[in-house]
Design brief:
The protein has two domains: 57 residues; 133 residues, no CATH class. 53% of the residues lie in helices and 0% in strands. The chain contains eleven helices and no strands. α1 runs antiparallel to α2. The longest helix has 30 residues. The two termini are 30 Å apart.
Length: 204
């Protein structure tokens, strides 16, 4: 896909250069068609292909942790402690390893709902233009929603047959009881204490 995109970009540049240097070529009908393809169709395909490639790349874990401020969050996925929810999901492949961040935070990415897109763009601005925040101070505006957990866990036998979950299922679905702040699964990315935590090293 990337190879095709690069070829389209190069061809667009070549054709645009030809018509910029020799605009008289467009007098002939066949050259007008070629000019339309080179100056309109190919650039449009490049934009669509580029956006599609970037969208797919932005869902990758390595993309998320490529920002300096997100590095500790990537490291927290290797905490060797069963009470750390993101780490256990990542290490036990409960989410795709190469899409670990996106799997749980899809609604909070720059490609989520409009409000979250604006928050994502704000983070990009802070990363490259302003001052990035302290990683330990980063919070999801409005809090983490149960819907993100239930998206995968709802319908799973181990989850639904758990007596604790079944007793409060209605309140979990209605967000009256939070999965993360009710005292059940309250340890997520403990980036403030990473240096004091034991880390898991996967086998080579």
């Amino acid at each position: 896909m990337i190879g095709v995109l690069i070829c389209q970009i190069v061809l667009s540049i070549v054709l645009a250069s030809v018509f910029l240097i020799r605009p008289s070529l467009t007098r002939a009908t066949s050259w007008k068609i070629l000019a339309f393809i080179g100056l309109c169709v190919l650039p449009a395909l490049c934009i669509v292909g580029g956006m599609n490639t970037h969208m797919q790349r932005s869902e990758q874990t390595r993309f998320c942790v490529s920002c300096h401020v997100m590095i500790p969050y990537g490291q927290s996925l290797y905490v060797d402690d069963a009470s750390h929810i993101p780490a256990q999901h990542f290490q036990n492949h409960r989410v795709p390893v190469d899409m670990a961040c996106f799997s749980c935070h899809a609604d909070y990415t720059i490609y989520g709902p409009l409000k979250d897109k604006m928050q994502g763009l704000k983070r990009i601005y802070m990363q490259y233009v302003s001052t990035p925040p302290d990683p330990a101070a980063i919070r999801i505006e409005g809090g983490f929603k149960n819907a993100q957990c239930l998206h995968c866990h709802l319908g799973a036998r181990a989850f639904e047959e758990n007596p604790v979950h079944s007793a409060m299922m209605d309140s979990l679905k209605s967000e009256q009881t939070s999965c993360l702040t009710s005292g059940c699964h309250d340890t997520t990315h403990d980036v403030a204490n990473l240096s004091h935590l034991k880390m898991w090293s996967p086998a080579p």
